[in-house]
Amino acid sequence: MKVIQVISSNIPIEQTGNRRWGALELIQSEYQKGLIKKGVECEIKWLNEVKVDANTIVHIHVANLCIEAKKLGIPYIYSNHDHTSFYHGKGSWLYNQQLEAIKGSIFSIAHAESVIDFFPDTDKLFYLPHGVDTLFYTPSEEVISEKKILMVANNGAAGDYGIDRKGFKLGINAAKKLDLPITIVGAEANAKFFEIYPELLNYNKLTVDSSNPTEDIKLGYLKTHSLFLHPSESEFGSPNLTLLESWACGLPMVAAYDGRRHIEGLQKLDSLNVDEICRKIESTFDRYDTIIETMKKDIKLKNPHSWDKIVDILINMYQSAMAIPLENNSLEVKEQYLKLYQ
C-alpha cells in the first residue's frame, strides 16, 4: 500500500519544533511521519502530480481539491477540517461543497463527532480523533507555583476576524474577575481581533503574542503556565490539537468540550459564561496537585492520545478503503466499512 496526501495550501509542511501555525499541515506531517515509521510509503504531492493505481490511497484535506480529483477520475479519502461551513450553515454553498466532497469520496473522515451529525445526508463520514506528539510535548519537571492562565488559539471564523469563536473575551474577563495573569498566543489573525476590540488590552495582567510562534516557543508557554483555558464555542476537532498538547504537557485544562474521549485533567465547562469559567478555574486550583499527579500517571502508563495510536487506526481505515468497491452507494459503504473496521 502506498499513500499520497495532497498538498492543501502554501504553508510549508515542516518538522516538529520549527512548524508555525497551520493545524492542517501539522496533521498531514504527523500522518506522513507515522506512516513511514510503520513501513507505509507516504508522499505529499500537488494534485496535478498524483498518479494512482490499485495499491495507492489518495488522501485529500480540502473540499475543492476533492471535487477536482473526482473530475480527474482519482478515487480519494477526504478529511473534513473546515469549521467555516458551520457558520455559513446547512444549505450554504460551502456546506454543499463539503457534502459533495464527502459523497464523492470512497469514505470521509471527521475529527469531531458533532461534525458527523452536521452532515446527516451521507453515511460516508466516520470519526478519527486528533493526536499529539508525546515525545515533543512532555510534562514539565517542575509544577508552576504561580497561578497563570494560558490560551492558545487562532480566533475568528468564516473570514471575520471579529467573531470570538475561541472565547478570548470570556477568558480575559474571567482572569480579570479572579485577578490572575493570562497569556493569549496565536497567529496574526489574533492581532486583527484585538484591533477590533482594543478595550480588551486594557487589562494590565494580559499578555498577547500574535507572532505566529513556532512549536518550540508554544511548548515554552505550555511549560510555564499553570492552567490551559479553552472556552471555544465551536470546534471541528474533539479533542482539538491544543487540548491534546496541554494534556501531553501535564497542564490542567478548563474547556468547552463535547467529545466522548476522556481527557485526564480536563474540566468541562457546562456553559460559556464568566461565572462558570471562574468556578471551574477555582475548582481546578483547589485540587491542583492531585490533578497534576493523575495526569502524569495517565501520560506515562496509558498514553492514549499519541499520534502513533491514531496512525494505527488510520492504516486500518486505508486498508478498509482498498477493500470497498468504488461503485458502492453510501449505505453499502457504511455497512462494508463497519464490517471491515469494526
Overview of the molecule:
- The chain has helices at residues 23-37, 63-71, 84-88, 93-103, 113-118, 168-178, 189-196, 215-223, 241-248, 274-286, 288-301, 307-323, 330-341, and strands at residues 2-6, 41-45, 56-60, 77-80, 108-110, 125-127, 149-152, 182-185, 206-209, 227-230, 253-255, 266-268.
- The chain is built from 13 helices and 12 strands.
- Helices cover 40% and strands 14% of the residues.
- α6 (168-178) packs across α10 and α12 (307-323) packs across α13 (330-341).
- It folds into 2 domains: 2-131 and 307-341, 3-Layer(aba) Sandwich (Rossmann fold); 149-301, Glycogen Phosphorylase B (Rossmann fold, 3-Layer(aba) Sandwich), CATH 3.40.50.2000.
- It has a 6-stranded parallel beta sheet with strand order 2-1-3-4-5-6, with helices on both faces. A 6-stranded parallel beta sheet has the order 9-8-7-10-11-12, sandwiched between helices.
- The chain is α/β, with parallel strands linked by helices and 342 residues long.
Overview features:
single chain; 342 residues; alpha/beta; Rossmann fold; 2 domains; six-stranded parallel beta sheet; 13 helices; 40% helix; 14% strand
